[in-house]
Amino acid sequence: MSPAVRFQNVSRHFGSVRAVDGVSLDIEPGEFFALLGPSGSGKTTCLRLIAGFEQPDEGHIEIFGETVEGVPPYRRNVNTVFQDYALFPHMTVGENVAYGLMIKGVEKSVREAKAKDALAMVKLGGYEGRRTAQLSGGQRQRVALARALVNGPKVLLLDEPLGALDLKLREQMQEELKSLQTSLGITFVFVTHDQGEALSMANRVAIFSDGKIVQVGTPTDVYERPASRFVADFVGSSNVLPPEFAASHSGTPSWTSLRPERIEVVSDGAAIPSGYASVKGLISVISYQGAVTRITVVTEKLPLIASIPATTSLRKGDHVTLAWPKAAMVAMGESA
Amino acid sequence: MSSKGKTVSPLGLRISAIGGLLFLHLPLFFIFLYAFTTEEKSFEFPPPGLTTKWFGVAWNSRPDIWPPLYLSLQVAAIATILALIFGTLAAAALSRTKFFGRESISLLFVLPIALPGIITGIALRSAFDIMSIPFSVWTIILGHATFCIVVVYNNAVARFRRLSGNLVEASMDLGADGFQTFRHVILPQIGTALLAGGMLAFALSFDEVIVTTFTAGQQTTLPIWMLSELIRPRQRPVTNVVAVFVFLVTLLPILAAYYLTREGEHTGGSSK
Question: Is the model more confident about A57 or about B228?
């Protein structure tokens, strides 16, 4: 079976800016796939290349085995949930959702019934007659979702779908999007700059930097085994250890990632467990973050950040011994 | 707002404001008044008597009024249609894309309404001469279209700027081609602006004198007919009767345009 979306060496330039630079990528049918990266990294341009709003300057794009270069957005079986939702202000909620069906020439009673079902699916049953201006941000998002899904797309594209929502609503929508995607079995491709969102929702993540993909993998892959210093730094936070330091603590002599939550504070006089590396230092910063407390420890070579239980009685200026499993040190490529 | 509305402005300011408004609008009253005067050779004040017979005269025994009226309606209608097409296209193009020289081109579109009519008139006249285009109804229409386009363009470009580019993309994403997107998404959004622009353009064209003088051949539009009537000391009140008619024909569309754009701004604002 051909992949849902295939990029082969795709580039898109805007003047001298290489917004997307030689990207190759396969997204499998039924995946919940995240394009993750900082702003300006090319992830949104990739989404627009799939939707058809942009055409590649180089390379080849397939959607379910069909070449789509030169195919306009309205002839592609993909639908988009826009970042600002882009609901039509002169139409009711029901007319918005039925728009795609109306364009296809679906009979009025049929499309109204389908719009009704789609709205019920996003828990907005009975909102058909409302004006879009009367809706809250979360409700507009749901209308946008229903308007896209009612057309039965093969791929659903979501551009920063949760960006404009507050934290509680965002967490709720994350759950709903995931369960929708599971029940519909449609390929979802979403763009986000929020690594937490990408890790919690996606089956697989592609991480973008400067128009290139720097790593593709499951959330566990990219978090536990970052391929580069950029990924280690961008996905969560990480102590990036230079090769000499890593080597002197029984790691491999290459740039190495060490997650703060893998570091423990060993009480004075206690033995370092076997299989652990350790270093002594002085706490220079201590910050309470609710669930955990984050400390910065200045050691002889470099400062290390550690996440420790919030119940700690440590204070700024305390001398501590840090220890971590040697396996927690993940060697990465040289590149930044 | 409400507290500002209650503040009382100084008496002097109020008197000068009322004076200014009277100076601007009192002459209109005389146009109406002289349509009812019994004196037919000169405009005497106060009128020696009042009569409504000139309305009958204008309607029944002055066939020379009708051809200029029809011509003016025809010119205004065609110039407005041309303006609606080209003004909308220009506004769509200039509001959606960014390119070097966009502001200059935008200025070029607006220029004909800023230029004195006499400049536009002379320029068009020499251009038609050079191109050996004979003066006709069509040269008048072209002349009027130059400034009618501006009104439509100005109205449409303001609305286009408020129209989120994403709406067009959303429509395309949902399967609509360019024409369907225009019909179902763009037109409903800019419709009132176009209607308002079109009515203003119609009103501007209907009473235009200067450009018409330079671009007309033997044709006489209604304003030109009125100008020539004023020189003849015969049945002068008939001119005023026609002036009252012109006043209504141009005022009503302008009022409608005002209310349409005001309402449009309101709905445009609330949808944001």
Answer: A57
Query: Which positions in chain B touch A51 (Cβ < 8 Å)?
Result: 169, 173
Where does A243-331 sit in CATH, by number? Answer: 2.40.50.140
The amino acid that residue A300 corresponds to is E
Mean pLDDT of chain A: 90
Cα–Cα distance for residue pair A132/A146, rounded to 1 Å: 13
ipTM: 0.82
> What are the sequence ranges of the domains in chain B?
12-51, 64-270
What's the pLDDT at A21? Answer: 93
> What letter would DSSP give residue A106?
-
Name the minimum distance, in Å, from the CA of A199 to any CA of chain B.
28
The span from the CA of B250 to the CA of A287, in Å, is 73
- Tell me: domain B64-270, CATH 1.10.3720.10, correct? yes
Full-prediction pTM beyond 0.80?
no
Q: Would you call A100 an interface residue with chain B, using a CB distance cutoff of 8 Å? A: yes
Task: List pLDDT tens digits, range B198-242.
Answer: 988 998 898 888 888 888 888 888 888 888 888 876 778 888 888
* pLDDT (mean) for A105-117: 94
**A151 interfacial to chain B (CB closer than 8 Å):** yes
pLDDT tier at A154 (50, 70, 90 boundaries)? Answer: very high
Q: Considering only CA atoms, which of B124, B120, B139 is closest in space to residue B75?
A: B139
B184–A103 CB contact, under 8 Å: yes
Q: Decide if pLDDT at B268 tops 50.
A: no
- CB-based contact (8 Å) between B169 and chain A? yes
B254 touches chain A (CB under 8 A): no
* Residue A269: how many other CB atoms lie within 10 Å: 6
The alpha carbon of residue B266 is apart from the nearest alpha carbon of chain A, in Å, by: 13
**Smallest Cα–Cα separation from A158: which of A181, A139, A136, A137?**
A181
Q: Give dist(CA B110, CA B94) in Å, integer.
A: 12
User: How much is the average pLDDT of B11-23?
Assistant: 91
Residue B265, pLDDT above cutoff 70: no
User: Does the pLDDT value for residue B158 go beyond 90?
Assistant: no
Distance from CA of B265 to the nearest CA of A (A): 13
Where do the structural domains in chain A lie, given as residue ranges?
5-233, 243-331
Q: Which CATH code, of 3.20.20.450, 3.40.190.150, 3.30.420.340, 3.40.50.300, is assigned to A5-233?
A: 3.40.50.300
CB interface of A with B, residues 32-61, below 8 Å: 51-53
**3-state secondary structure string across chain B:** CHHHHHCCCCHHHHHHHHHHHHHHHHHHHHHHHHCCECCCCCCCCCCCCECCHHHHHHHHCCHHHHHHHHHHHHHHHHHHHHHHHHHHHHHHHHHHCCCCCHHHHHHHHHHHHHCCHHHHHHHHHHHHHHCCCCCCHHHHHHHHHHHHHHHHHHHHHHHHHHCCHHHHHHHHHCCCCHHHHHHHHHHHHHHHHHHHHHHHHHHHHHCCCHHHHHHCCCCCCHHHHHHHHHHCCCCHHHHHHHHHHHHHHHHHHHHHHHHHHHHHHHHHHHCC
Distances (CA, A) of B176 to A51, A236, A251, B24, B217: 13, 41, 58, 51, 47
Instruction: Calculate mean pLDDT across residues A29-49.
Output: 94
- Cβ contact, residue pair B271, A86, below 8 Å: no
